[in-house]
Amino acid sequence: MVRCGRCGGTMTGRKRKSHGKDHYVYECRRNYAGAKDKGCGRMMSENKLNNIVWPMVVELLDNPEKLNEHKDAPQKNICAG
Fold first, then answer.
1. Per the database record, which ranges form the Recombinase zinc beta ribbon domain (predicted)?
2. What's the structural domain count of the chain?
3. How far apart are CA 63 and CA 27, in angstroms?
């Protein structure tokens, strides 16, 4: 469900360790055999993505009429590439 703002590829969630603590990132990288596109390598933290997505979700839930506006509109990037 998450697409890269730079190349449009799908981003995959991964768990990382930093200073002994787990944190989660989304990566635009495909390193499995047979992948047609390797991705651009962009990464975004789960926290940064949550800070972008959840306010939009809350706005749509608070204003259901806005949901109809988005239903037929073309998809757009919400993150700078």
1. 1-56
2. 1
3. 31
Residue with tokens 């972008």: 52
Full DSSP string of 25-54: EEE----STT-S------EEEHHHHHHHHH
Q: Up-side HSE of residue 77: CA atoms within 13 Å toward CB?
A: 11
pLDDT, one tens digit per residue, over 63-74 is 888 877 766 666
Domain span at 19:
12-71
Residue 80 included in any domain: no
In a domain, 77, yes or no: no
- Sign of the C-alpha dihedral computed for residues 18, 21, 27 and 31 taken in this order: positive
* Cut 0.70: pTM above it: no
Read off the pLDDT of each residue in 7-24 and give the average, rounded to a whole number.
89
